[in-house]
Amino acid sequence: MTVVTSVEQLNALYGAPGESSLVKVTDHVLPEHRTMIEASPFMALATVGPEGLDCSPRGDADAVIHIEDDRTLMLPDWRGNNRIDSLSNIVRDPRVALLFLIPGSNTTMRVNGRAVVRIDEAITQRFVMDGRHPRSVVVIAVEEVYSQCARAVLRADLWNPDKFRDTSQLPTVGQMLASAKKGFDGEAYDREWPGRAATTMW
């Protein structure tokens, strides 16, 4: 087994990146970036903390994130499972990475930066859904913005409905929970989940 142990080995294996891979990175949101990001209702938020890494899915009814200005993004933290893994990481290590998906587009957008968690009413009250506002808002100072090559989404054929999986053939969350913890009532969890989700979306 041959294991790569240095950046020099990687550079020798892959060669130099093309010009477009280098010039695409900016330290702020360009108008074209704004159009793409505002079209995205879903993103993955990557954070790092003393316990390790975390990558959390984030979604919203419209744009998943608010662009305050070309160097500042705001992410309302809507209701979830209260594990607060991402937020716990951010308050101890501000580095974050964002990956935006746009339904129907093979181009993804990436943002790297540093974040803080704000809870003052002046900012939480700006985001309201169904009469509720988030308990906190993640404010991201942009350091890098760039589009990602479309090959990954093209290879996955991600938006092709003919490739969608038959979810009846996949395990339910309740089944996975029951497998993880002996005695957990997975059937009750699956049965109650739709109603619980409908009243706790925001």
Order of helices and strands: HHHEEEEHEEHEHHH
DSSP summary, beta strand count: 7
Low confidence ranges: none
* Binned strand content: 25-35%
Shape: globular
Distance between the termini: 49 Å
Rg over CA atoms: 20 Å
Average pLDDT: 96
Largest sheet: 7 strands, antiparallel
Strand order of the largest sheet: 2-1-5-6-7-4-3
Structural class: alpha+beta
Helicity, as a percent range: 25-40%
Structure characteristics:
globular; 30% helix; 8 helices; seven-stranded antiparallel sheet; alpha+beta; single chain
Fold topology:
Blueprint: H1 7-14, H2 19-23, H3 31-38, E1 42-49, E2 52-59, E3 66-69, E4 72-76, H4 85-92, E5 95-101, E6 108-118, H5 121-124, E7 137-148, H6 151-156, H7 173-180, H8 186-199
Helix pairs in contact: 7-8
Can you describe this structure?
The chain starts with 6 loop residues before the first helix and ends with a helix. The protein has helices spanning 7-14, 19-23, 31-38, 85-92, 121-124, 151-156, 173-180, 186-199; strands at 42-49, 52-59, 66-69, 72-76, 95-101, 108-118, 137-148. Helix 7 crosses helix 8. The longest helix is centred in the C-terminal third of the chain and has 14 residues, at 186-199. It is α+β, with helices and mostly antiparallel strands and 202 residues long. It has a seven-stranded antiparallel sheet, with helices on one face.
